[in-house]
Amino acid sequence: NEKVLDTLNAEVKRRKHLEEEIKQFTAAFAFRQRSLVSLRSDFDSVIDSFKAQKPISISRSPGF
After folding, report:
1. What's the pLDDT band for 34 if we cut at 50, 70, 90?
2. pTM assigned to the model
3. Coiled-coil segments, which residues (predicted)?
4. What does the alpha-carbon distance between residue 42 and residue 53 come to, in Å, rounded to a whole number?
5. Cα-trace Rg, the chain
6. pLDDT in tens, 9-20
7. Taking the CB of residue 17, how many other CB atoms lie within 10 A of it?
């Protein structure tokens, strides 16, 4: 009976530890996701700025 309680308590501690790790992972994942979205937005802004400064001209080869 004592051994069963010890095993149960160990499993409860293990579960709480796993739940904490999941919370930390979720927070880290959300932070990374926000960072990537921000980076993408910054990248798009830089690209748009370059496009506005130097429009790409398409030169046609003779005969086309």
Report:
1. very high
2. 0.61
3. 1-28
4. 17
5. 28
6. 999 999 999 999
7. 10
